[in-house]
């Protein structure tokens, strides 16, 4: 008995002795590049913690044995939570690697400087929307660049026609043709294509798109007056071997993406087919016309990375796009009657056939110097009827950019020679020679040179200066300089300033879709000169940390002054008069965007933009009169939120778009006697909201499903976008007062959709 008692006593004393021995945890916190000084480690259940030293080392001494949950954090990185067990007397070593936070600071962009750089390092403010981001909030199979771009604060879709629903992209309140749209850095979307061609860029081929707000003619020439949207296509090497994405909607629409990513030897490629089918007639507002355009659309895309022994880059991409778009009265659409009666002067409808082919890519020269050629070719054909009016047009663009890139100490030099040939022809007065009265297609060869210097003045300050000189046969030499500055007063705060110029050569069809739709006659009272602009923007970006979450605040101020601006005059209900303004136009505004990633799997983005877009003209009395530019919202906002439910692998994504009041054109409804009313409709719109919600569920590594509701609360424009459709003296749509230009908000109601995705990964 004594022996047993003595043994138990010894065991108890040994356990007490072990319990009195303290444990410790130490190690290093780092990222892929090395140590992260100032990173923190904390035990949430107590006040115990430490801050990493210059080598990223930390230490947590004098711990009782047991289990501990540790939180590792640093601004700009995703927090890491790790549970460990330490025994008595143990000294546990941990090496923790933090991943960059998804705030977008380390996205690679090329648009601002024509060469790859990180968002946080670029002297030019560039907004980036990745394919993963916009597929989270929009239905992938049905989305195009037009849908994705609406997720960017200060960027709007503008609908130009209330029958065929042509749309364009507006930046900071300026019309769509003021924005240069590039594909992999090359300009292939001329003015004609900006009306219909952008809908043929499916999300299937997009890796990301980059947006610069403000004139960028120094690098990208004409059409970059409001800004630049650069669509970066997917890298074939990173795509699944096979992919299918099919979707249907409650409006009997069908969309699909089919793709493959084969390899031939050491070269790899991507081949994709996108289709859209809409063939349903709804007339909710009872104006006799369909509330959405019917269409058959096919887009075939391929891109190849060609292997070279030198490992120099050589990419070739091509896209073919076909669309059969139509809308009108029900008789025009029923049983595809439009195919036989398009152009009828009794049954109104609009029918647009679009064929578009593109070829583009990059070839790096086999030399020690950094020399490359970016090239593109495009051909756009349009065969269309707007009622009984036939509009036929073609535009071809051939472009080559020869670029030299050189690092000289603290200076990064970029120089280039550009050659652009563009051909435009149509059957309207826009291409009639005023002297001979004969058709005169617009053929232009536009040579240009540009030079850019990015100077790292110090660790905190960098300057980007540049200039471009283009020569136009009709207008002579046009010079466009710019200056950008980036200053970092702290690690997580960046100030950017941009000052530059822009210019644009016009195309009437895309200035205003009413040029060809409706029944107004067109007058061009003078030879139209290039529009010019002066612009200044200021940007403040700050990364912050609150508790266990992080975010960024982005603040923009912009001001643009336009001269030679072309503004259509609608004062006469029977005419549209085009001329360069004798006055000027100004756009100015403030934008703020907050992105916040919570510690739990919720990410929120809130953007709000307030702007004023005005034109100042002499009135009949000879005094200057200032009015608002049409279809430029006085304020707008976009809010997105997505929550990832990890265990069932479900993502819930919500989008809210806010559109404030905007100036509208003066249009006149027709009375019971067939004459226009004495007063136009309201020339100011009402604000509205547009809600979307999407759910996605990962079933397996190969299969996933998604579904949702667009226009959740069923908002539609409270009045028809058409006027003169009820003229009792003419067939519907053929009144001399018929007009389609009053479309400012959706008239397409609530829509449910459901889709399924399947991916077959490549063998590794």
The major beta sheet can be summarized as:
22 strands, antiparallel, barrel
User: Averaging pLDDT over every residue, what do you get?
Assistant: 84
What's the gyration radius in Å?
A: 30 Å
Helix content: under 10%
End-to-end C-alpha gap: 68 Å
Report the count of strand segments.
Answer: 43
Shape: globular
Low-confidence stretches: 8-19, 510-514
Approximate strand percentage = over 45%
Number of helices: 8
Q: How would you classify the helix and strand content by structural class?
A: mainly beta
Write a structural description.
The chain is mostly beta strands and 764 residues long. It contains 8 helices and 43 strands. The strands form 7 sheets. The protein has a 22-stranded antiparallel beta barrel. The protein has a 5-stranded mixed sheet with strand order 11-16-17-14-15. The longest helix is centred in the first third of the chain and has 18 residues, at 2-19. The protein is globular, with a radius of gyration of 30 Å. The model is unreliable at 8-19 and 510-514 (pLDDT under 50).
């Amino acid at each position: 008995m004594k022996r047993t008692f003595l043994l138990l006593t010894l065991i108890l004393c040994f356990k007490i002795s072990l319990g009195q021995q303290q444990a410790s945890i130490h190690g290093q916190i780092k990222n892929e590049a090395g140590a992260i000084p100032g990173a923190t480690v904390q035990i949430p259940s107590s006040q115990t913690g430490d801050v990493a030293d210059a080598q990223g080392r930390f230490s947590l001494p004098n711990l009782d044995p047991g289990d501990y949950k540790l939180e590792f954090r640093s601004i700009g990185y995703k927090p890491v939570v790790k549970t460990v067990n330490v025994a008595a007397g143990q000294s546990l070593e941990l090496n923790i690697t933090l991943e960059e936070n998804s705030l977008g600071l380390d996205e690679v962009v090329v648009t601002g400087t024509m060469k790859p750089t990180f968002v946080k390092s670029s002297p030019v403010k560039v907004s980036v929307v990745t394919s993963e981001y916009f597929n989270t909030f929009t239905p992938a199979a049905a989305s195009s660049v037009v849908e994705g771009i609406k997720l960017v604060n200060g960027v709007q879709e503008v609908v130009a026609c209330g029958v065929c629903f042509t749309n364009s992209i507006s930046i900071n309140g300026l019309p769509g043709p003021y924005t240069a749209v590039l594909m992999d850095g090359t300009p292939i979307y001329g003015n004609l294509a900006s009306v219909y061609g952008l809908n043929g860029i499916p999300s299937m081929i997009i890796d990301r798109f980059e947006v610069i707000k403000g004139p960028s003619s120094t690098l990208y020439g004409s059409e970059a007056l409001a800004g630049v949207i650069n669509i970066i296509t997917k890298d074939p090497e990173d795509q699944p071997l096979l992919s299918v994405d099919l979707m249907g909607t409650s409006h009997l629409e069908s969309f699909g993406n089919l793709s493959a990513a084969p390899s031939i030897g050491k070269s790899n490629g991507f081949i994709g087919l996108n289709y859209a089918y809409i063939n349903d007639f709804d007339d909710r507002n009872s104006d006799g016309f369909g509330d959405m355009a019917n269409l058959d659309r096919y887009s075939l895309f391929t891109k190849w990375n060609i292997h070279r022994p030198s490992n120099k880059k050589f990419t070739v991409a091509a896209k073919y796009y076909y669309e059969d778009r139509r809308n009108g009265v029900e008789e025009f659409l029923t049983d595809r009657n439009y195919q036989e009666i398009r152009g009828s002067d009794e049954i109104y409808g609009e029918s647009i056939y679009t064929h578009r082919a593109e070829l583009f890519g990059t070839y790096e020269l086999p030399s020690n110097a950094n020399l490359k050629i970016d090239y593109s070719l495009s051909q756009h054909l349009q065969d269309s009827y707007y009622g009984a009016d036939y509009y036929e047009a073609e535009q071809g663009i051939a472009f080559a950019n020869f670029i030299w890139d050189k690092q000289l100490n603290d200076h990064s030099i970029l120089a280039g020679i550009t050659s652009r040939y563009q051909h435009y022809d149509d059957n309207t007065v826009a291409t009639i020679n005023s002297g001979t009265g004969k058709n005169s297609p617009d053929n232009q060869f536009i040579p240009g040179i540009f030079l850019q210097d990015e100077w790292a003045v110090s660790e905190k300050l960098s300057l980007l200066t540049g200039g471009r000189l283009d020569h136009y046969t009709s207008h002579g030499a046009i010079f466009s300089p710019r200056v950008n500055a980036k200053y970092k007063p702290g690690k997580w705060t960046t100030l950017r300033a941009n000052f530059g110029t822009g210019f644009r050569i016009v195309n009437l069809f895309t200035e205003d879709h009413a040029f060809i739709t409706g029944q107004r006659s067109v007058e061009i009272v003078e030879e139209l000169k290039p529009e010019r602009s002066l612009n200044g923007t200021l940007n403040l970006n700050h990364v912050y940390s609150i508790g266990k979450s992080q975010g960024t605040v982005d603040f923009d101020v912009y001001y643009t002054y336009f001269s030679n601006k072309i503004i259509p005059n609608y004062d006469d209900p029977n005419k549209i008069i085009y001329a360069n303004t004798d006055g000027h136009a100004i756009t100015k505004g403030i934008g703020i965007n907050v992105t916040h990633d919570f510690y739990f799997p919720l990410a929120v983005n809130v953007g709000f933009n307030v702007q004023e877009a005005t034109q100042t003209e002499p009135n009949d009395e000879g005094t200057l009169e200032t009015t608002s530019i049409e279809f430029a919202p006085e304020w707008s906002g976009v809010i997105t939120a997505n929550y990832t439910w990890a265990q069932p692998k479900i993502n819930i994504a919500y989008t809210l778009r806010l559109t404030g009041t905007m100036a509208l054109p003066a249009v006149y409804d027709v009375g019971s006697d067939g004459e226009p009313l004495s007063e136009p409709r309201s020339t100011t719109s009402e604000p509205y909201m547009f809600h979307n919600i999407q759910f996605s569920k990962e079933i397996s590594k190969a299969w996933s499903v998604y579904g949702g509701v667009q226009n959740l609360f069923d908002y539609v424009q409270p009045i028809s976008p058409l006027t003169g459709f009820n003229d009792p003296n003419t067939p519907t749509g053929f009144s001399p007062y018929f007009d389609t230009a009053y479309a400012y908000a959706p008239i397409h109601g609530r829509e449910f959709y459901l889709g399924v995705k399947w991916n077959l990964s490549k063998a590794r």
